[in-house]
Amino acid sequence: MKDAQPRAIYLKDYQAPDYWIDTTDLTFDLFEDHALVTSVLGLRRNEDRGQDTPDLTLVGIDLELVSVFIDGSELTSDQYILGSESLTVPVTRLSFSLTVVTRIRPQENTSLEGLYKSNGMFCTQCEAEGFRKITYYLDRPDVMSKFTTKVIADRGRYPVLLSNGNDIARGEFEGGRHWVTWKDPFKKPSYLFALVGGDLEMVEDSFTTMNGREVALRIFTESHNIDKCDHAMLSLKKSMKWDEEVYGREYDLDIFMIVAVDHFNMGAMENKGLNIFNSSCVLASPDTATDASYQRIEAIVAHEYFHNWSGNRVTCRDWFQLSLKEGFTVFRDAEFSADMNSRGVKRIADAAIMKTAQFAEDAGPMAHPIRPQSFIEISNFYTLTVYEKGCEVVRMIQTIVGEHHFRKGSDLYFERFDGKAATCEDFVKAMEEASGVDLSQFRHWYNQAGTPVVTVTDSFDQASGRYLLTIAQSCPATPGQETKLPFHIPVAVALLDKDGKALPLNEAGETERVLHVTAAEDTWTFEGLTEKPLPSILRNFSAPVRVKYDYRREDLVFLMKYDSDSYNRWDAGQRLATAVIEDLVDGQLKDKETAIDSRLVDAFGVVLADEELDKAVKAEMLKLPSEASLAEQAEEIHPLQICESRSRVRKAIAEAHKDKLLELYQTLHLKGEYRPQAGDIAKRTLRNICLGYLVELEDDSLQQLAEDQYKNASNMTDLRAAMGAVINSSFQSRETIDSLLNDYLDRYKDDAVVMDSWFMLQSSSPSLGTLEHLRSLQEHESFDRTSPNKLRALLGGFTSGNMKQFHSGTGEGYEFLADWIITLDKQNPQIASRLMTPLTRWKKYQPAIRERMRKALERIKAVPDLSADIYEVVTKSL
Ligand code: TRP
Ligand code: ZN
After folding, report:
1. Strand partners of residue 453
2. Which residues, other chains included, contact 251 with Cβ-Cβ below 8 Å and sequence gap of 6+?
3. CB 325 within 8 A of CB 307
4. Catalytic hit among 304, 377, 392, 632
5. 801 three-state secondary structure
6. Across-strand partners of 115?
7. Less CB within 10 Å around the terminal CB: N or C of the chain?
């Protein structure tokens, strides 16, 4: 029996544990229908909490208790209390050993939390609170223990047995079973525990650390994927080197392992010395992975590796501090990616995610500060806010204290908290101490949810040559937070003269200044100007805020041409496009014929023709704001009008610049071997963007381009882009589309990762991805309803990537999603909860849609025995 109604827990109620667990000795006996887990815990009273010996309560979920021993003597059932999710034992000594034997059923575990099976292999996922599904434990991150793990299994089926640390012993038993013992010399919380057992192959390499220690690097996969690990291995070595060079952090064990598994709820997991990855975040070959996947793999390998310091050596005191490790680690991986590839484009891509998806989260019913004050289910807080906004908060600290002090601060933080569980406050204090900069007001970023709005007005006095820039800030109310205190917002600005040159802003001739906005309103004065400049505001997206400034459309065109800051140059284009598309949406709603503002179409022509512009930035600038981004910025969302208006603008751009698009398409053709390098990636991206525009035109020869590209593609990037162009074109016959889809299926049906895209391409297609089509796809033999990747491809592609079909009709799409959520909640609540997100944004839609979305949510809410995951999101959303 579960608790009747899940309850919230609060940061303010944090208490240190009554007991520490110094050592954890685990034995796993793995069988085909169950596993026996023997846990021997070396416990010690936390004397900060008293000298007495209160009862010890451990948590456990879905466990069958077999036996309990204290200091070697077995307890009878009247000597302990077995709760539905707990085990309480009496304590008489300050130090004692507790042995608990439990039986679990990994084969029946569909939640992909705890110990489970994926394609016949045993694997674990313990973050955040999955270890309690393995054995009774103090499953909280401030309890750090030294783990020893013995794994016993059938040798034939599971030749490879892995856990954290170093393998210290192995042997054989009669009857074909074998065992391996792993010992992790570093203390760690239970969420970093991992175990893998399977028939796996490995690729091996090594890395010599800055102090000359040799580390064995191993990546494990099923044998048919063994040739797709090179890129992940290369990424790992680059990450290890980068963390030494940029943060002075050296790897600490003699071995570092990565295991790829097909069934995984998230991207990857940083278990100590034994990272477990979603296959889609490891496996790559030119023939199967796109440029985007290559870059994603590099970033995620780095992210998990960087956690070894920011997360594992220094961990979180409690889950409210999640952003301590995630925000910082995302910042670290973002800087790594920027160093490895194009810095400007990385910044644009990250800002785009913030502005479309994180701002939407901040404006929705689940809005929370990067350090939440309460939660019902922690899994619901692995969010864009904790990760991406958390990263932006760390970045702002770096901007405020400067790079040099930031590094001093991180050194101090790592040194002071090595081997300990820390808080966000500890991190900020270390930065403050190392830099001498007061971050008191800055701390509001940790407590207040919502996206601040920065409103900029300016004036120029010709006579005095004085330019005044007034910046006001405000922050909308969020659930539980009606009013907010002013933030400390670093706003980077430059002033452009009428030739587009940035003016010097001080004696040193610097052309960019960071304005520290701390008051509700403040004014900055710039002297000695001869004309009114055009401000370039929030350069490099210096803070996660919305900027309001009354740019005329000519100003935006001007910034698109001249701003030396790539992010702002891109943002100017996005603002202009958004305004123009909004005109059309308005027109449709008022039944008024509206022409497309030619300034946008012309500006895109200028971008296309700009020879100086970095190709990677050019590619970004040629993308119209996504439907999701337009929805995020709308007062009230009219999805069908957004889709139609956006697509009208695309066609207009294609029509006006057909020749230039075609010329670029032809000249950018790359010959030779595929390389996933920034320069080549930029060319392919730009070329495929051109293709996307060209197929908007009703012209057989252009339609043929896409088909030919599919047929002649020598890498997955070009193949996938061509497929997308064909599928999404209104001028392609169903026969052509089907023949390409069948061809893809034939080639890739045995590759689960590649097949994810086959589903996604269809579910997200405005023409193909109808409900009827989705219903047939979910019965397809390559579909797997136990695979989160497949569910994300089919359902996520439809509900988040296919605005037109999801919102068409009279709410059938919402009911379809609700049916799935109800089913999935029993199987995998984490995935169910994530996939439900689009419905939770119902309040922003036009009234008829709003009502239908609400009804679907109400139906979910009425289902008995909802998981805590769904319960929390559904009750907060309604
Ligand atoms: N700590 C992981 C990361 O950010 C996230 C993660 C992996 C996770 N698997 C999970 C979080 C399952 C919650 C549940 O790298
Ligand atoms: Zn992480």
Report:
1. 474, 546
2. 207, 209, 215, 240, 308
3. yes
4. 304
5. helix
6. 124
7. N
Rg (CA), the chain: 28
Q: Which of 470, 491, 500 minimizes the C-alpha distance to 538?
A: 491
Question: Which of 259, 265, 280, 300 gets mutated to test ligand 1 (max ligand atoms within 8 A of its CB)?
Answer: 265
* Residue ID of nearest Cα to ligand 1 atom 1: 269
Given a contact cutoff of 8 angstroms between Cβ atoms, the answer to whether 223 and 213 are in contact is no
The answer to whether 264 and 277 are in contact (CB under 8 A) is yes
Residue 265 near ligand 1, beta carbon < 6 Å: yes
Q: Whose alpha carbon is nearest atom 14 of ligand 1? A: 127
- Range 570-597 average pLDDT: 98
Does the CB atom of residue 304 touch ligand 1 within 6 A? yes
Token pair belonging to 267: 């991207």
Q: What are phi and psi of 811, to 5 degrees?
A: 100, 10
Tell me if 129 CB under 6 Å of ligand 1: no
Q: Is the pLDDT of residue 870 over 80?
A: yes
Q: Which residue has the tokens 């000298």?
A: 51
Relative to beta strand 374-375, strand 9-10 is: antiparallel
- Nearest-CA residue for ligand 1 atom 3 is 269
Q: DSSP label at 137?
A: B
Write the CA distances from 786 to 263, 541, 782, integer angstroms.
7, 39, 12
Average pLDDT for 460-485: 98
The set of residues, in sequence order, having a beta carbon less than 8 Å from that of 679 and lying 6+ positions away, is 615
- Residue found by looking up tokens 């405000």 in the block: 474
| Local structure of residue 386 (DSSP, 8 states) | I
337-340 own/partner pairs: CB under 8 Å, 24+ apart: 337/295, 337/298, 337/299, 337/302, 339/242, 339/246, 340/238, 340/242, 340/298, 340/678
Reference 811, options 777, 843, 766, 856; nearest CA is 856
pLDDT band at 1 (very low <50, low <70, confident <90, very high): very low
Angle of helix 390-401 relative to helix 403-417, nearest 10 degrees, comes to 120
pLDDT for res 801: 97
Looking at residue 5, its pLDDT comes to 86
> What contacts 301, CB < 8 A, 6 or more positions away?
232, 235, 236, 239, 258, 268, 277, 281, 282
Instruction: Give the global pTM.
Output: 0.98
Q: Which pLDDT value is given to residue 30?
A: 98
For residue 739, the CA-to-ligand 2 centroid distance in Å is 41
For the stretch 805-840, what's the b/e string if a residue is b when 16 or more beta carbons lie within 10 angstroms of its beta carbon? bbbbeebebbbbbbebbbebbeebbbbbbbbbbbbb
Q: For residue 647, what are the contacts with CB-CB under 8 A and spacing of at least 6? A: 696
Choosing from 116, 118, 269 the residue with most ligand 1 atoms within 8 A of its CB, the one to mutate for a pocket test is 269
Tokens 């603002």 sit at which residue?
575
User: Which residue, 784, 824, 787, is CA-closest to 263?
Assistant: 787
Task: For ligand 1, atom 7, name the residue with the nearest CA.
Answer: 269
Question: Is 304 designated active site?
Answer: yes
Cβ distance 687 to 647 under 8 Å?
A: no
- Please tell me what DSSP assigns to residue 596: P
